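Hi support team,

I'm filing this because I wasn't sure whether my run with copper (II) ion finished correctly. The job status page said complete, but I'd like someone to confirm that the output block is well-formed before I use it downstream. Pasting the exact inputs I used:
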Amino acid sequence: MPNAIRTSTIFLSLVIFATLITTFAFGQTAYEIDISKGAGFSAYGKCVTTKNCFYPNPLSITTGSTVIWRNTDKVGHFVVSGKSNDNNAESVFDSHGVIRSGNTFQFTFVNAGTYDYHCSAHPWMIGQVIVGSVSNVTTTPIKQKTDVQPTQVKQTCDATLWNHVYHPQRLKVIDPCKTVTGVIQSIKKEADGDYHIQLKLDAQFSNLVNSANVKYQHGYLVLEPVCQNIVTQNDAKSACLNYKSMLTIPPKGNHVTVTGTYVLDLQHDSWAEIHPISSIQIIH
Ligand SMILES: [Cu+2]
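And here is everything the job wrote out:
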């Protein structure tokens, strides 16, 4: 082997070795991408021009790295792989449901490649993660954080949703914020803009339904995410004025985790509901 090639081979090996050491020394390598303030405001916003509604953008990392998207904006956002106009893009990662202000979503990139992503609610928000195999990445991450604890999925309830529940006095609150799991049985649009969803609760939550759920809802818990659809019922219109829910409801048959207020609906024989819903996510 000629000397020059041998030297560069040794040098490359050292680079790979050094990179591995760094990765192992700090544990899992994690990078943060911030969702910029005001990113949801308009397709002509500042961050759209400067291409940093997701910052840094693009982000170059190595395989095995975790990216944590942090929502520093005031409104909720989504992170979905692929381009916004590409309906058939195979989804590599998906925040499923909204990342609320201050919350995070994370994904570990196992395979090398160039990954476009976007916010499904604000299609002008686009970004790219470039994942190189350990040996060929030469760029230095703009922002690197180490020893990041796995994100605790803290289930919280958005109390402001109550501003969008019409006639809230018909609901008797039993638990202001409760998380349950189960399988979606049916989804129906209602005139008040809500969805009426029947959820077959997992065994450990089966005590949350009552005789009215059995009598009128096949024993299923009722889920009511508010202001999902166009309101045609007159007395419900004001509750959804200038407000549209950012929740994405998974199709029926999905096993989901749901967080919201656990109530009894006094107008319907006091059957049990989660109403309003703060989050609903597919369990993988
Ligand atoms: Cu967004």
